[in-house]
Design a protein that fits this description.
Elements (H helix, E strand, L loop, with lengths): L1 E10 L1 H4 L7 H11 L2 E9 L3 H13 L2 E7 L10 H6 L4 E2 L1 H13 L12 E5 L5 E7 L3 H22 L11
Parallel strand pairs: 1-2, 1-3, 3-6
Antiparallel strand pairs: 4-5, 5-6
Length: 171
Amino acid sequence: MTSDQVAVITVSDRCARGEAEDRSGPTAARILRTAGFTDLVTHLVPDGVEPVRDVLRTALDAGARLVVTTGGTGITPRDLTPEGTREVLDYEVPGVAEAVRQRGTAAGIPTAALSRGLVGVARATAGTRALVVNLPGSSGGVRDGLDVVLALWPHVRSQLEGGDHPAPVPG
């Protein structure tokens, strides 16, 4: 079990208006709990740069060390999660975002390549650092993305704290 706080943020106009059921957020929460995260908070916001930016700030300032968004990463006019995320990131970690897209395409979902999701590090007001991950708004995309992120989490967590690079573990 880990005491790290995790925030799961669903970004969806339809879910925020009560017109659709949020499936991807609960999927993310279930996977994270199964992985041992016990301090988990969830949020649901409409699409848009400001709602995403503001809820990310809220989650970071509340102490989240891992923030996972789901939804708003596609190419429709309202898919603005990456733009809102970019406003809070100190820097991006593009290799992780690319690995998430590759996992989806390898799983036979060619549209995974259309995701514009970002991954990066952001600093909270108190100075702590967190990994922010944009995942697609589908349960399958969330599963694939969290497979990638959770495999990296122990190393990322150490690096967020300024830890040294451990010796590579053959995979």
